[in-house]
Amino acid sequence: MNDSFDVDRWRDDLESKRAEKDDFFADHPQSPIPPEERDSFDGLDYFEPNPTYRVTAIARVSDDPDVVLMDTTAGREMRYRRTATLEFDLSRADGDLEDGTFELGAYRQESPNEQPLFVPFRDKTTGQQSYQGGRYMELESEKALEDGDEIVVDFNLAYSPFCAYSNTFDCPLPPEENWLEVAIPAGERHEK
């Protein structure tokens, strides 16, 4: 994190986004919460905000992105391009550095429209404290990402896909290259 990072403002922004998402899930016609369950919905469950899990990653960008076929929860395959590989270090809250550097693939569907980077992942909380199908992040860069650029990866913004709430959705599953061998207790929780 850089010196200009304002933790209090970050925490307030994060809590505001979470409240906005809870309102959407409770009331919006496109909510993934089945209509018959919305009256009893009292908000999503989250890990406590933790700036330790807001990291700066170095992007390795390919001029010719590899095709990655992701299995989905409905047994189909979705075609993505690995736009970048993000390398980052994690320091636990107790100050101990986790083992080495971690990597996550960042993807885009083949589309003429520029989309945020899609970063699906699994970690050691998957299937226990978070959704069994993994979680997602969407990352935006202020400019076209180039090899060696830095990009903020905030795991506090990790969320469960809509298929965690209803079988009517078909969601891509994180490819094995995005299975982290570490617990990321940040972002949305989902215990069943």
From TrEMBL:
Residues 20-44 are annotated as: Disordered. This is DUF1684 domain-containing protein. It comes from Natrinema halophilum. InterPro entries: DUF1684 (IPR012467). It comes from the Archaea.
